[in-house]
Amino acid sequence: MNEEQIRKAIANRDPEAMEWVMNHFAGLLWKIAHSILHDASNEEIEECVADTFFAFWQKPEAFQTGQSSLKNYLGTIAKHKAIDRYRKINRRNELTYDEHVHSAGTQDVLMQLISKENDAELEQMIESFPEPDREIVKRRFYNGQKPHEISEALSLQIRQVNNKLYRSRQRLRTWWNNRK
């Protein structure tokens, strides 16, 4: 069969002619599609090749035997179908990425709000401590002072500071576990 006969047979909806074209050019079209869609699944590449054959089946008159060979014509269609599919896949991945970034951003904001709420509640609890416990806790956990520095500043023994820190932590732990 020459290319003009193939085109006419396809125009007349001859399934045997289409089967001949598919058997003859499927490997080439696969390689063309795969060279563009190298990261895509085999199903994506197969769909691209099938779309190429379908396009030829739908409009065989678009192929002009005098302008190019059937091989070049089908190869060009496959290349354009693969490029379109590549863009579609990347657009889909972009949206997924944007949704992921938005979701992560929303979660970060939520965590910040929860953290601020927890900080405010914690500060209220510490403010309810009697003196000098409140001052010791603030100096140790907010100002980062060592127990011996706190004992010097408040004129207390180191043992008293450590005991008050221990009891304050126990009180905070109990409060934290009971508040939920």
Offer a concise description of the structure:
This protein is mostly helical. Helix content is 81%, strand content 0%.
Q: Beta-strand level of the residues, as a percent range?
A: under 5%
Number of strands: 0
Work out the helix count.
Answer: 7
Report the radius of gyration as a whole number of Å. Answer: 37 Å
Low-confidence stretches: none
Question: What can be said about the biggest beta sheet?
Answer: none
The pLDDT mean sits at 85
C-alpha termini separation: 81 Å
Topology order in helix (H) and strand (E) letters: HHHHHHH
Characterize the quaternary organization of these chains.
single chain
Helix content: over 70%
Structural class: mainly alpha
Shape designation: rod-shaped
Protein model, in words:
- The chain has helices at 3-11, 15-36, 42-58, 70-127, 133-142, 147-154, 158-179.
- The protein is an all-alpha fold.
- Helix 5 packs across helix 7 and helix 6 (147-154) crosses helix 7.
- The mean pLDDT is 85.
